[in-house]
Design a protein that fits this description.
single chain; mainly beta; 9-stranded mixed sheet; 3-stranded antiparallel sheet; globular
C-alpha cells in the first residue's frame, strides 16, 4: 500500500485494483462568499461552514463511508488530523447521514478532504472521493 492508503490497510480494508474502483469528484457547498473551481474552494475568514456530499446514492445497509481531512501545516501542533472519521453533523457530533459531512474551517492555509466508500461485508473500497482542496485566507 502507498503511504497515503496506510490508514485503510490498518483497518483491514481492501482496494479493488481491477479497474472497478471509482475515483469521483466531491461536491462542496458553502453558505459564505467564496470562489469555487471543480476541486478547489477559496474564501477569506475563519469559521465558515462547509458541507461535503457524496454525489451517488449508496444503500446504507450495504455500504459505509469514512472521511479524511488533512489540515495545513499552519494549523498548529495537534490540529493537523489526517485519520479517517465518521461524518460530522452541522452542530457537531455524528451525522445520521454519513454520506454528508459538515466542516468548519478554523485554520488558515490550504487543506484537503476526501472520502472512502466501502462494502461493509467485504471491507472492499468501491469509491474514493478525489481530494477537494479548501484554502482559507485572512480577512483583509
Amino acid at each position: 500500500y502507498p503511504d497515503y492508503l496506510e490508514s485503510l490497510r490498518n483497518r483491514g480494508w481492501a482496494l479493488q485494483l481491477d479497474g472497478s474502483l471509482k475515483i469521483v469528484e466531491i461536491e462542496g457547498v458553502s453558505d459564505a462568499g467564496f470562489r469555487k473551481s471543480r476541486t478547489r474552494l477559496k474564501f477569506f475568514g475563519f469559521g465558515e461552514r462547509l458541507v461535503f456530499k457524496v454525489q451517488k446514492n449508496f444503500d446504507r445497509s450495504k455500504y459505509g463511508i469514512r472521511w479524511q481531512v488533512l489540515n495545513s501545516e499552519e494549523s498548529g501542533a495537534g490540529n493537523r488530523r489526517g485519520s479517517l472519521f465518521e461524518a460530522k453533523a452541522a452542530g457537531g457530533g455524528k451525522n445520521s447521514n454519513e454520506f454528508i459531512n459538515h466542516e468548519t474551517e478554523q485554520y488558515s492555509g490550504e487543506h484537503w478532504i476526501k472520502y472512502y466508500v466501502y462494502e461493509k461485508l467485504s471491507k472492499r473500497v468501491v469509491e474514493i472521493g478525489r481530494k477537494f482542496y479548501v484554502e482559507v485566507g485572512a480577512k483583509d
